[in-house]
From TrEMBL:
Keywords: 4Fe-4S, Iron, Iron-sulfur, Lyase, Metal-binding. This is L(+)-tartrate dehydratase alpha subunit. InterPro entries: Class-I_Fumarase/Tartrate_DH, Fe-S_hydro-lyase_TtdA-typ_cat. One of its GO terms (molecular function) is lyase activity. Pfam families: Fumerase. Residues 9-281 form the Fe-S hydro-lyase tartrate dehydratase alpha-type catalytic domain. NCBIfam families: ttdA_fumA_fumB (TIGR00722). It comes from Cocleimonas flava. Transmembrane segments: none annotated.
Amino acid sequence: MISNKVIKDTAYQIMGKAAIDIPQDYRKGIEFMVQKEDGLSKFVLKTMMENWDAATEDRRPMCADSGLPRYYVKVGNEAKFEGGPIAIERALREATAQATHDIPLRPNRVHPLWRTDHNNNVGINSPEIDWSFEPGVDWIDITTVHKGGLFGTDYRMLFPGDGIDGIKRFFLDTLVSFGKRGLACQPAVVGIGLGGSKDTTMVLGKQAACLRTVGEANPDPEIAKLEQELKEMGNDIGMGAMGFVGASMVADCHIEVGYTHTGGMPMSVHMFCLSSRRATARIHADGTVTYRTDPNWFTPYMRRETTGWEE
């Protein structure tokens, strides 16, 4: 049985890894962009990589604004753990408070009205915990993502008649607006949610931005084709790193979809900034832990269309 202590200790460890160490898939994407850029945009990209190296060497957060820490928990159907889901939530909240103090993370969480701040990134509905499940396994995956919570997100209710052209238009409108107004720290991983209800499309878009790796295509070949086309369009609007002139606004583009109302096509756009902060740990049934940077969140089970499920 997986103990509460192991869950808390593991969550604490990935909090540090996410805040300090840039995932290798994102870094490789930036290294590729450096080869194509020049001028100030190239200089900024190189400086970014030097900053990542310094953060790892000094064991300090890569960005002073450490975002809003949150968790994505995937529980194996055969997993046995102490205290049930309530105990997992408590362990994650305790790990967040401890990591905020120790790393340290900036205590960004305040009450929306009274601005109450507990200085630990814990409060009402904070940190967020998203749950999913996986058949036939006995492990628990915990992913933490530290995403900024102010800008870099937009939503629009499109309609079936808008089609692919409408998707492209909203995508470009959003990127141009964010770039001109300084509402995103690019190059960013852009996540797009299509379909579902309004709240679902927002969730899907954020997951697409934060929980897929650079270079990972959607398994649907037509969606993968659209992802690549949008990435190329985003890098052709004339904006580079941190708003300078260039061609490096989009490190990658990911799309996730959900079945929606027949009369609509809701769409959300989310930008996961150049401090691409995420880390994952798998807690095995015997209590051992393995760490990685690929959340592997969108499994075939997550994308199932059928009523039932067969391996």
